[in-house]
Amino acid sequence: MNTLTVNGVRHTLDLDPSTPLLYALRNQLELNGAKFGCGLGQCGACTVLLDDQPVFGCLTPMAACEGRSVRTIEGLGNAEHPGPMQASFIKHQAAQCGYCIAGMVMRAQALLEQNPQPNQAQIRAHMEPNLCRCGTHMRIIAAISEVALSRQVKPRSKP
Amino acid sequence: MKRTTWIWAGGALAAGCVAAAAWMLQPSIAAVAPPSPAEFEPAAIARGARVVAQGDCMVCHTAKGGEPYAGGLALRTPFGTIYTTNITPDAATGIGGWSLAAFTRALRHGVARDGHLLYPAFPYIHYTRMSTADIGDAYAYLMTRAPVAARAPDNELIFPLGFRPLLAGWNLLYLRPGPESDDAAQSVEWNRGRYLVDGAGHCASCHSTLDPIGGERSPAFSGGNIDGWDAPALTALLHAPKPWTREQLALYLRHGWSPDHGAAAGPMSPVAHSLSQAPAEDAEAMATYLMSLQAPAAPAATPAPPAGPQTAQVMQGQTLFNGACASCHGAAAPMMAAGGRPPLSLSGAVAGASPDNLIQTMLNGIPWTHPQPSTFMPAFAASLNDAQIASIAAYLRADAGRRPAWTGLEKRVADLRKENQP
Amino acid sequence: MTETVDLRRRAMLGAGVLVVGFSLLPQRARAEFNAMGVPAVANKALAGSLKTNPMLDAWIKIAPDGKATVFTGKVELGTGVRTALLQIAAEQLDLSPAAITFITGDTGRTPNEGYTAGSHTIADSGTALLHAAAQVRALLVQGAAARLKVDAAKLVTRNGVVIAPDGRSMHYGEAVRGVDLHRTAQVKSPLKDASSYSVIGRSLPRVDIPAKLTGGASYVQDLRLPHMVHARVVRPPAYGARLLSADIAGVQRMPGVLKVLVDGNYLAVVARDEWQCILAMRALSAGAKWAGGPPLPDAANIHATLRALPAQDITVENKKGATVAAALTLKNRYTKQYVLHGSIGPSCAVAHLADGHLTVWTHTQGVYPLRAAIAEMLSMPLDAVRCIHTEGSGCYGQNGADDVAADAALIARAMPGLPVRVQLMRDQENQWEPYAPAISSELSASLDASGKICDWHYELWSGSHNERPGNAGKLIPAQLLAKPFTPSPSEPMPLPEGGGDRNAAPLYAFANSKVMNHFLPKTPLRTSAMRSLGAHLNLFAIEGMMDELAAAAHADPVAFRLRHMEDARARDVINRAARQFGWDQRKRRPDHGFGFAFGQYKNLMAYVALAVEIKVDRSTGAVHILRVTAAVDCGQGVSPDGIRNQVEGGILQSASWTLYERLQFGPEGIASVDWASYPIMRYSNVPAKVDVILIDRPGTPFLGVAEAAQGPMAGALGNALADATGKRLRDLPLAGAHLMS
Fold first, then answer.
1. Which residue on chain C is closest to B49 by alpha carbon?
2. Which of residues 141-200 of B touch C (CB under 8 A)?
């Protein structure tokens, strides 16, 4: 049995402990945000926050998540009440197929929680692990920049 | 003591001081106007690119995210932090005002244009072996780079090492200026390989043990430590689970991985990336020379440790491996099956006496050398804690067999993680 | 998501005998599908896809509460067409988009519009909806007129309500009573004047984006059905490999495994839990032994290999005008390597066989052709199979979507009653998708004494750009079965749209111009359509040659193009892009380069001109794209921001292909199994600034725009690199160690 805290809620799951977090989130908890893109840690479509750090959900086994806190895009807000990052992405229409976007949002969220005022170069460097095949990067950077300017994401203390 | 003895002692001391002063206080070479790129022949610049790739100058002289050769990279040494200098041809902040004579003196003698002594973090004790032609070509290459105005931060060295003239003494001990002559008994390729390894390649800078004042110990290539990573002994290549061959070593140097051993990681991966820009014959020559230095293979009499029941740590490691690692490192994984990568049991990081390189690889991954196809591994520092990384290391060690288990893994992971903090 | 099929509607699609009783017709009737997979034209005078689907209620239904359901045979691939088509319908219907339920490609519910491809959606489906909606609105007005006893000409509509001059009103749900929408569309429609548009031409926020940003179920990957099981396939290690043995019994015993399928060279495993399934797949793959197939050619001389293959010679253009003496002739060769679609989410499908009916949820581009292929593969009647489009990640052409749908169908047949979800792994998507073909071309062009182009001769060699199913043999799983299906022979795509020869004929006005396409029907790697098809390489070549000729004529590249361009709209985008970029004010700086290019997609669709400024780092070979300015004319723009989004995306994607992308392969097989072995653009290479300017032309026909930037961006980058380095490169990808100096 594994206990997993996701978006503030504690879950007890009976899973093979080698199960990557991505599948526990999608299948057992039915959360759609984190996606399977490669399963190899090369594309970032599965990016979620683990104890406030961006990690690849596809390569983080349940056995490594015991007692730790996971945050997914569902924890930032919903369609009626989106969080600041989500609202900015919607405002900038920062999505084409949208498959990469939940991973992008979580990676960006981690950046602003650690560095509330990143410059352009820092944003780009931080987002490097995440791929977008549709070429939506310009809007994603614009959306993140606007959230940074608005100071709506509160910094969290570094681990 | 007799008066004559005092006079002799005093005279010797005075002579020593004069000699040291001659070393300490080097004359300034007049600054020149930055040469125009048109002054250099394209062929010389192209040859220079090869020399600079052999020397991996860009690796140290480029800060993370910085312009090439503009310096500013922090080198953490046991003596403090040294920031690399700007070697672009900028007149004010780089080497734009350096004549070929000044550049040559820096490589051969560790002296800057204005006469101050350079810290041996810059491996001039190796570059001194380079031929005049190669130094001239490297100069042509560097002087035709894009000039960048950038000044490195001040060094932060333990007192009194900030006092550069002390280096004169160090140089007396460790600097043997000038090229070595060829060994007529050896092949052209062997001599070329030694020239590259001992000269521009400066392999011994990392792969040799250093004495307390930072000089390389003899015998060379006994193994060293750099930035928290082990630089393995280059004389023990036949002791690997699958003994190295010249072919495998040449492939490794050029491509950053070998089909029998795995990928270069940590400080070695930028070196391989740099060498990939030199022709294959350079890596092959270096491999030929290095393979001639080998201690014989360990006798087969060393028994494999008995396979006992799996410990809880090893079992936990296997579970974590299946979820975190097997998508690349499992037997049927595409990287293995289609990519021809070796199993981890053949990796030097798994077979080594110390678990440090394996731990560092798991913590840091291997970064993209983008946008070329490259070896890449994600970092696990954020997703796996010390105990988890330790258990995976224990599992891989046990699974490879043939070597005794490591002890104190969890503490070692914690220590390395702390050392890695900026 | 599951809907029952309206059999009554199917029986009443009486317009064409072909459509009624389709399932009764023998297989050869399905060959009536043309290359775009659509049925035969019922009335060519009708607008857009009304030609093939003329019944109004196939497109629009009005419910008693006044809300509408609108149907399109096209599908949302991530381009935003769901929203754009919705806008068109909402505008002409005079109904709020929020009051419309919009249904996309579903063989059980929607018209057959073939494939969503070729930038045809707005032109074909949008035009059909534009007209159908206008005609439905007119019918609703007539229905209200009859009930209100008012002259129809005096009624107005606003937001779903018909309003009489005296203030009485009736919402559409009432107005539709007594109106039979089950009728053929008219040739002419009472369209609203474009100047009165309040929805078309606005950037309506895309209706699908909020869910994608908040974890809503948006993709086929998110589909969860009761009792659904998970499946994974094991593909052969290379084309043509034969399965010798596999440890079926061992894998069968693994936790959660329900079934292991072996059928010839086809291997799959089904399990309750997805991770259990992946572990079983790994074991099945590790234990399988294969005999190798025929070796692939060497990548190093692939173009020589391809050119030696049998070819079908197609004359694209052969214009002979007055012969003028050539003062100078340039002759160049251009090449492009195989390029991976590289969908960020590997393909996925869900299938459910229950009571003799198979439902497949799939991100295919063509639900109807796919249905025919799956029905053939399973020997099922057509109307027992239903394909429902459910979004996947961007496909950019034919990726693994159809293959994995076939996997799901095959496995569902082996697990009757249980929905089966199949997800391809990254390496499976990479190794088995049909690539963008490797293309080579030769171009020879001459200037006369006055510096004008007097002769133009272009030839290209390319494999197939269309391997889409219609025929079961085009599906990889069907090829692997013990009784394999054979793919139908590859056909060139007909002009004027073309395949490898798309945009091979320049839009510039030359007195003499000869363009030939050497179509290679059989090539060693599996290939098919990828966004813009031949236009990417052809425009790279054409626009590169234009710059080389301009230099030889001592002319500015933009002025030189204008000198040869008669098309007024082309001249407009060229001038606009140049002006907005500040082309005439560009300043020479070391290692910097400027490039310009133009293309009208297919010489029929959207016009794009763009200018780029780049910087090359000679020490590393890195190419920094500093800024891109594009001017776009796609006729009546439906959603300006949607268009800009697509063009920005096309610019970045084309930059990635043009600078970095080449498939790695060798005799043993496809080596590009992941992103490390097939790097694409990352944030570190993304341009610093991209500006897209739209030239809106209200009321004019919709011109397809989604693929229009690929070719011009390649041309502009080639020109900018030549400007920056002084060396002209003609072999894609352009970046690499050779840029170091």
1. C741
2. 145-146
Question: Looking at chain C, which subunits does it touch, using at least 3 CB pairs closer than 8 Å as the criterion?
Answer: A, B
Question: Is the pLDDT reported for residue B340 higher than 80?
Answer: yes
Which residues in chain B are closer than 8 Å to C283, comparing Cβ atoms? 332
> Which residue type is seen at B94?
G
Phi-psi region of A48 (alpha: psi -120 to 50; beta: other; left: phi over 0): beta
Q: SS in 3 state form for chain B?
A: CCHHHHHHHHHHHHHHHHHHHHHHCCCCCCCCCCCCHHHCCHHHHHHHHHHHHHCCHHHHCECCCCCCCCECCEEEECCEEEECCCCCCCCCCCCCCCCHHHHHHHHHHCECCCCCECCCCCCHHHHCCCCHHHHHHHHHHHHCCCCCCCCCCCCEECCCCCCHHHHHHHHHHHCCCCCCCCCCCCCHHHHHHHHHHHCCCCCHHHHCCECCCCCECCCCCCCEEECCEEECCCCCHHHCCCCCCHHHHHHHHHHCEECCCEECCCCHHHHHHHHCCCCHHHHHHHHHHHHCCCCCCCCCCCCCCCCCCCCHHHHHHHHHHHHHCHHHHCCCCHHHHCCCCCCHHHCHHHHCCCCHHHHHHHHHCECCCCCCCCCCECCCCCCCCHHHHHHHHHHHHHHHCCCCCCCCHHHHHHHHHHHHCC
Q: Residue C590 region, left (φ>0) first, then alpha (ψ -120 to 50), else beta?
A: beta
Answer whether A53 sits within 8 Å of B385, measured CB to CB.
no
- Considering the domain architecture, whether residues A71 and A7 belong to the same structural domain is answered as yes
* Co-location of A112 and A56 in the same domain: no
Residue A159 lies in a domain: no
Neighboring chains of A (3 or more beta-carbon pairs < 8 A): B, C
Start-to-end CA distance of chain A, whole Å, equals 27
pLDDT by residue (tens digit) across A62-117?
A: 999 999 999 999 999 999 999 999 999 999 999 999 999 999 999 999 999 999 99
Of the candidates A79, A125, A133, the beta carbon closest to that of C342 is on: A133
Total of domains in chain B: 3
- B410: domain range? 312-420
In this prediction, residues C228-257 reach a mean pLDDT of 98
* ipTM of the prediction: 0.98
Backbone angles phi, psi at B35, to 5 degrees: -65, 145
Residues B279 and B368 in one domain: no
Q: What average pLDDT does this structure show over C359-382?
A: 97
Q: Measured between beta carbons, which residues in chain B are less than 8 angstroms from residue C590?
A: 146
Q: Name which of C83, C344, C395 to mutate to probe chain A: the one with the most chain A Cβ atoms within 10 A of its Cβ.
A: C344
Are A113 and A58 contained in the same domain? no
- Note the pLDDT of residue C38: 77
Same-domain status, B161 and B209: no
Tokens 């090359």 correspond to C616
Q: Are strands C439-447 and C453-462 parallel, antiparallel or unpaired?
A: antiparallel
Q: What is the mean pLDDT of chain B?
A: 92
- Give residue-wise pLDDT tens across range B17-65: 666 666 567 899 999 999 999 999 999 999 999 999 999 999 999 999 8
The answer on A102 and A39 residing in a single domain is no
Domain membership flag for residue B4? no
At C218-231, the pLDDT tens digits run 999 999 999 999 99
For chain C, domains (ranges, CATH) are 7-209 (3.30.365.10), 220-292+341-432 (3.30.365.10), 439-465+500-739 (3.30.365.10)
User: C506-534 pLDDT, tens per residue?
Assistant: 999 999 999 999 999 999 999 999 999 99
Amino acid in the structure at residue B108: R
Q: Is pLDDT at B296 greater than 90 in this prediction?
A: no
pLDDT tier at B304 (50, 70, 90 boundaries)? Answer: low
Structural domain harbouring A120? 84-150
What's the rounded Cα separation, in Å, for the pair C218 and C348? 13
